[in-house]
Specification:
The complex is a heterotrimer of chains A (156), B (617) and C (416). By secondary structure, chain A is an alpha+beta fold. Helix content of chain A is 26%, strand content 21%. In chain A, strand 6 (102-104) and strand 7 form a beta hairpin. The longest helix of chain A is centred in the C-terminal third of the chain and has 14 residues, at 141-154. Chain B has 617 residues and is an alpha+beta fold. Chain B is 38% helix and 13% strand. In chain B, the strands form 4 sheets. A 6-stranded mixed sheet of chain B has the order 2-1-6-3-4-5, with helices on both faces. Chain B has a 6-stranded mixed sheet with strand order 8-7-12-9-10-11, with helices on both faces. Chain B is globular, with a radius of gyration of 22 Å. The relative contact order of chain B is 0.13. Chain C has helices spanning 10-22, 44-48, 65-68, 128-137, 151-162, 183-195, 292-306, 378-385, 393-399, 404-411, and strands spanning 2-6, 27-32, 71-75, 78-82, 87-90, 95-97, 100-103, 107-109, 122-124, 143-147, 166-171, 199-202, 206-211, 217-221, 226-229, 231-234, 238-240, 256-257, 269-271, 276-279, 286-287, 320-325, 328-334, 344-349, 354-361, 364-371. A 5-stranded parallel sheet of chain C has the order 3-2-1-7-19. In chain C, strands 9-16-10-11-12 form a 5-stranded parallel sheet, covered by helices on one side. In chain C, a hairpin with a 4-residue loop joins strand 14 and strand 15 (226-229). In chain C, helix 1 runs parallel beside helix 7 (292-306). The longest helix of chain C is centred in the last third of the chain and has 15 residues, at 292-306. The chains are: A alpha+beta (156), B alpha+beta (617), C alpha/beta (416). The interface between A and C is large, with 43 and 52 residues.
Amino acid sequence: MQKSLHLDAYKCTGCLQCEMACSYEKEGAFNPAKSRIKVFTFHDLGRFSPYTCTQCAEAWCLHACPVEAITTNVATGAKEVNETLCVGCKVCTISCPFGTINYNTETHKVDKCDLCGGDPACAKACPTEAIVYIDAEQTGYDKMQKYAQLNLTQGE
Amino acid sequence: MAWTEKVLRVNLTARTTFVEPLNMEWANQYLGQRGLGSKYLSEEIDPKVEPLSPENKLIMITGPLTGTMAATGGRYSIVTKSPLTSAIACSNSGGFIGAEIKNAGWDMIIFEGKADSPVYLYIENDDVKILPADDLWGNSVWKTDEMLHQKHQDPLLRVACIGRSAEQQCLYASVINDLHRAAGRSGVGTVMASKNLKAVAVRGTKGVGNIKDFPRFLNATNQAKQVLAGDSITHEGLPTYGTQVLMNVINEIGAMPTRNMRDVQFDGAERISGEAMHQIRASDNKANLTTNAACFGCTIACGRISTIDKGHFSIQNKPEYWHASGGLEYEAAWALGSDLGIDDLDALTYANFICNEDGFDPISFGSTLAAAMEMYEQGLISKAQTGGIELNFGNAEALVKMVELTAKGEGFGKELGLGSKRLCEKYGNPDLSMTVKGQEFPAYDPRGIQGMGLTYATSNRGACHLRGYTVSSEVLGVPEKTDPLTTEGKPELAKAFQDATAAIDSSGLCVFTTFAWTLDDIAPQLDAACQGDWTAEKLLEVGERIWNLERQFNLDAGLTGKDDNLPKRLLKEAAKTGPAKGKVNELGKMLPEYYQLRGWTADGVPKQETLQRLGLV
Amino acid sequence: MHHVIIGAGPAGVIAAETLRKYDKKSAITLIGDEPEPPYSRMAIPYLLMQNIEEQGTYLRKGNDHYRRLAIDLCHDRVIGLDTAQKQVHLQNDKTLNYDKLLIATGSHPVTPPIPGITLPGVNHCWTLADARQIAAKIKPGSKVVLMGAGFIGCIILEALVKRGAELTVVEQGDRMVPRMMNEKAGNLIKRWCIDKGIRVLTSTRVEAVESGQASRLSIKLAGQTTLAADLLVSATGVQPNIAFLKNTDIKTEQGILIDRHMQTSVADIYAAGDVAQGLDFSSGENTVQAIQPTAAEHAQIAAKNMLGLPGARFQGAVNMNVLDTLGLISSSFGLWMGADSGDQAERYDPENFKYLNLQFADDVLVGATTIGFTQHVGVLRGLIQNKMHLRDWKPRLQQDPSRVMDAWLATHQVLA
């Protein structure tokens, strides 16, 4: 059974431990600005929304990449960026309708969530279970993927 | 390590900025935030300086653990000389800007001089600009925050700024960051305004990577997080009720200052408690509390986010307040509630919104209004002077009106901006000012909690609960239970709490962790992050050094042992109800022993040997 | 069943792979007329910058990728098409029979009608062969004139500078990237380039190229100006490769007209990518977009329809581009120039080279332009393509357009 990240805005307190964990895992420093998962704050509503790549099946970023730098990890389902192959053309960053693959102006490559190879640091760091890594079925992940497909390619 | 080792010095007069290396010798002696900021201030200004003159300086400073994964590692402090107390001021705030400053590569920012017209400081990593703020001046904190976000087109820009109260020289104006987190006390916002500095806007993308031993640090912080997660206060009480978890507890033990501390219990306490914030209102089927919220890196999340009933009289025609924002902490609920005899939860929440929106301390404001109400009831203040408002205890409409006036420094609000001490002197009854060194009391009546009388009296920034929270032991039994009604052992308890707190206030961590943590939980985190060896013993020594440094500053500023005092009411008028009925605070019994334990003379002056032991000579 | 694909660019390759994904049996032939393995023109600037080797431009990295998928990769050139016989004629006298045909022949750079444009010192920058020539011609200090500051001109600009060229850009329009950026944005990019030491001449054009005396070329501009140059790089636009269809009944305008199933006017013949004139999401008209994401979308939908799979109906592609001009990153989406009687939201911060412009029709986002933003820009596409009613988020975005990500989350019930 493939797992996915389940994000729950109602449980999130906005502490950003996930962003620090992610940036430490990926960059070796506590640096929310470099995190692949982001918490968006809706101050007026009193709501915090953790948000990252849904690893969609027919990934926009993957198909848009001109040099096969984005591939699917068959074990986790994650769409992973091969930094050696990525030329930094940024086409994936405008293709992803979720805005979850971003250009890094320091490395001149793109960054995205890769589920940490199946052991996501953000989920481990979350103190309130607003981010959990669980069986894909339970997360409504399929629904979200289907939703993405329907609304963004076929629908009218 | 853990420090960025970089100081940003901003000369507002000349509109120039300089980069300096952090004095690492001092960092090793004073850690960061409160301690290190106080050291820099002591070295750089004459303690006798006029607080609102260009010669005063304002320091924004992080701690070594600010911006790290340590739980609650998001704190920063503002250190300056207070216009309210003329003593050293250090106000500590959470939110997100502290970590942002660190992420931008700075340990601290020193503001000196005064700009000849309004400015704000914009920081994007190494890119630092002093920019004109003429358009921002005259706007509230909330509006300023919005304008800066629009201008810089960056939702992640973090803003700390002052509101209109500070511009109007309210003496207890705060610096508000992230819309509703405050460096709240002692008028640090007033000093910022005196420099024509409207805001500091920061974006940092460098991160904090300078950790001595990452694996050990992660291990230490994880263990400490487990301690927080296993404690009933930090894991249940605080996230569920916030600091408002205390309202009913403190009321029951008869230490709830009520109606300008005439009483020690408030019959409306339950209606303004943390529990009440969860109750569904009949009027709109919603609770006052919308959610709890965390500051940067905090795994406790005690912050309150509240929404006022749209139909409530305070906002019924003001849709701009129909959204969620920072709700009542215990201190605000007390000062705006029981101290004014008001039990209208939404009115208190509205007043709290306004304190955030225009940046002033709800404790000092509530307490000053309480004194005004008492003088009004005594006939010392007339209806003509209040602009036709009946300033009676229990009058929620009066609270709403007065908080609005104080926000803008208009009408009687200008008078309230003086603070309780000056207001009571002006209107002829100084004894009604519930202050120490000119700063208003927080929410614990020292007749019902004896140790707090001593910590209030000796606090280096005037009356304050956060300088030595003996409530923890006397009421909550942390780390061990002592009797709140006796003075025995309290000097020792006060000193231990004061020293430990000074160290924690300097680390980048939040003092609320100490409901569950001891220095033994904190030291390993610092030791793994910072160069040098950091043990609980060393932290206590650092704390004691900080305490004595602050004391020395105040003595040099002209304060004396005579200022370690409490208002007559608390020393002479006995508590009327509850477990402390018949009690006054017995400060006189505790103070001499306290001086002795501190290694101070009978006049409260640190002895030479004490200063030598702490490396303060 | 035999699927034949003409053109081995991104559209051709993705179509071939999609065909194979759903159909393990049929024969698939992929015809490309360049000698290299299928590669990406998008990667050429990075090759010129020497960030990558030629292999780094290849669309697929595995040596046996096409063989493993049983895709017959054929290096040849199509010279004719017989739609009645369902045959493709190749340059080497071979003829292929097809059951389904996909035309993905891409485009070629326009050669403007300027005297001297065929002189040896003039180069396009389109193919790997072009790139090799340019690389050989530019030495540090070489005087290079770049004719055309469109999308292609701009993406190769940095590479030319990095190779040491002393660069002058000549653009006919009144700003840089005039077909992708509005006046403010195009001029901001222009000023950025000037600040970086590039000479940028807009609202002028090259009238003639001659062999020079001191330098190799003498380039005459409208008016009296003459530029001395060692190399002229011509980047004045591209046109679909449709010449070989001249004698067929396949309908073409600028490109090959396709329906919502990517089928041309002739049954069993499909088109995809730069050569196809397909539905534009924003205008509702058929246009040639010539961009990578559209090529990828076309290819997948075309392949599915070639196989008769249900539900693969094209809803139109959002035109969009992203540019990196000497480190200044810009993008534009959909109706960036605005919709009739629509509102806009704009923040212009020229001092910091930041620009954000959102275009609305009613309360739906229909277009956007960004300069200086790298985070979450894709969500602009999401908002446009999902036609989400922004409701109270529209006025908020008009106040602060940088909150597009918040608007996405709030309108997509991620918060619910």
